[in-house]
Design brief:
Layout: H1 14-33, H2 47-58, H3 68-71, H4 74-89, H5 91-101, H6 108-117, H7 126-156, H8 159-172, H9 192-207, H10 209-221, H11 235-259, H12 271-284, H13 300-312, H14 325-339, E1 346-347, E2 350-351, H15 354-381, H16 386-397, H17 412-427, H18 429-435
Antiparallel strand pairs: 1-2
Helix pairs in contact: 1-2, 1-4, 1-6, 1-18, 2-4, 2-17, 4-8, 5-7, 7-8, 7-9, 8-9, 9-12, 10-11, 11-12, 11-13, 13-16, 14-15, 15-16, 15-17, 16-17
């Protein structure tokens, strides 16, 4: 009888590799942050706090149980910054960039990983895409750091250089972590240079890299003039840019109207500063995590507007979280088509495929379920107002990083719940279900009878 081969080769799907790579980096990061050298006092922090901090950095969320500026040493802050950079770009992108720098060949397996990580449509031009992503990221972060230095160095001296670099990386990666203090950017809320630079980096990171290249392409080779060139953009870019602009404008208007008479937020400021603060709040809810207004001081109406903007988030293939702008646009178009009795769902003169519609519905439903169950679990172990708990879980699931001052008060169980929620929000609940499902779906050889049911 032939001998049974006891050595079984473990084969992982691309989705499993991506998810496990994030877990591996979180594990390594939490181990480094738990070391005494990472703590500002040289003693060390509890592992659950190190795990929470590593997760919020890798998942580019920004929720913190310990003040980054006072709890961590320079070594610890450097570890956090590296985790943010890895989390923002993705582990696979970083490893591919290292292989390109060492002039190593990127095999087909790695190319497929990159394709899945960025939801690309094909394998052609993968190496060039990685090079562009790395170069574009470094360029944006370097430019942001230089602009920040103009504001920070005169105020903080040589320390302002490190603060500028840290903030630039955190802003572009939509992480929201800072080393200023416990009030984020509140001290710079009326500084156009700091706020403008932060908003620019957040928006650029949240638009997604494919949109960058598409805009640059039509700027260089477009045949129209002025805004007419925008017609040559891909459907994805048109949706991402238009929805982003619409949400930013609507959010700014909403926060300005709802907060302008609030003495704890906009009321004490001039009209220009009110508009600037309202715009920043609209930008940061797109999963940035920085704030110039304490979130617990917002009116309940503004808090619910923030919840909606956080849940939507940024655009695909970028550093932002949420269900994404494109998903929200597809669902809106689908709803409107149903209301008007149309059989076809269209955007910008193009039809949306049934597969895209199904994915949009599934992403939204699973994300909503994640928020719901996380909220219930956190409410069971935390004695806090319901709005504060909901704000926390939506912020964690959408990898935003805004809190109504609840994060520092979390119990150990609360920290673990929010940690899991941040991880789910970063990798995507559907990706996790697909990666660790029971196996490949069997083909539908036999179909069940069709019968109508009442809906709505």
């Amino acid at each position: 009888m032939p001998k049974r081969d006891r050595s079984r080769k473990i084969s992982l799907s691309t989705t499993q590799i991506i998810l496990l790579s994030f877990l591996a980096v979180i594990g390594l990061g939490s181990g480094l942050l738990a070391l005494p050298v990472s703590a500002a006092d040289g003693v060390g922090v509890a592992y659950v706090d190190a795990l929470f901090t590593a997760t919020t950095a890798v998942c580019v969320t920004g929720l913190t149980v310990l003040p980054t500026v006072s709890a961590w040493s320079v070594f610890g802050q450097t570890v956090i910054l590296l985790l943010v950079q890895i989390g923002g770009l993705g582990v696979i992108t970083i490893l591919s960039g290292m292989m390109i720098a060492l002039q190593r060949r990127i095999d087909i397996g790695t190319r497929v990983l990159i394709q899945d990580a960025f939801n690309l449509n094909g394998l052609s031009g993968i190496v060039r895409f990685v090079k562009r992503v790395l170069l574009g990221t470094l360029t944006a972060e370097a430019a942001g750091a230089v602009l920040y230095m103009l504001a920070f160095v005169p105020r903080f001296g040589a320390k302002g250089i490190w603060m500028a670099v840290f903030t630039a990386v955190s802003a572009f990666c939509n992480a929201g972590l800072d080393i200023f203090g416990e009030q984020s950017l509140c001290a710079f809320g009326t500084d156009p240079l700091v706020c403008g630079t932060t908003c620019a980096l957040v928006i650029l990171g949240g638009l997604g890299f494919p949109v960058w290249w598409d805009v640059l392409r039509i700027c260089r080779h477009g045949r129209g003039r002025g805004l007419r060139r925008l017609r040559e953009l891909s459907l994805h870019s048109k949706i991402a840019l238009s929805v982003t602009a619409a949400l930013l404008a609507a959010g700014t208007a909403a926060f300005f109207v709802l907060e302008r008479t609030n003495p704890q937020t906009l009321a004490p400021h001039s009209l220009f500063d009110q508009l600037q603060l309202a715009f920043f709040q609209s930008v940061t809810t797109r999963t940035a995590g920085f704030y110039t207004l304490p979130q617990q001081d917002l009116t309940n109406a503004s808090a619910f507007v923030s919840l909606l903007l956080m849940f939507i988030g940024g655009s695909p293939a970028g550093t932002a979280g949420g269900i994404k702008t494109v998903t929200a646009a597809v669902l809106t178009a689908y709803t409107l088509s149903m209301v008007h009795g149309k059989n076809e769902v269209g955007l910008w003169g193009r039809s949306i495929t049934r597969q895209t519609l199904s994915k949009a519905v599934a992403v939204t439903a699973v994300s909503f379920a994640t928020v719901f169950f996380s909220t219930v679990l956190l409410a069971a172990v935390t004695d806090a107002p319901a709005l504060d708990i909901l704000y926390e879980t939506v912020s964690a699931a959408a990898t935003v990083g805004l809190t109504r001052n609840l994060t520092p008060q979390l119990t150990v169980w609360g920290k673990l719940i929010v940690t899991c929620t941040m991880y789910l929000g970063r990798v995507g609940p559907i990706s996790l279900a697909v990666a660790f499902g029971t196996g490949k779906a069997a083909p539908n050889i036999i179909r069940n009878p069709i019968e109508d049911i009442s809906v709505g």
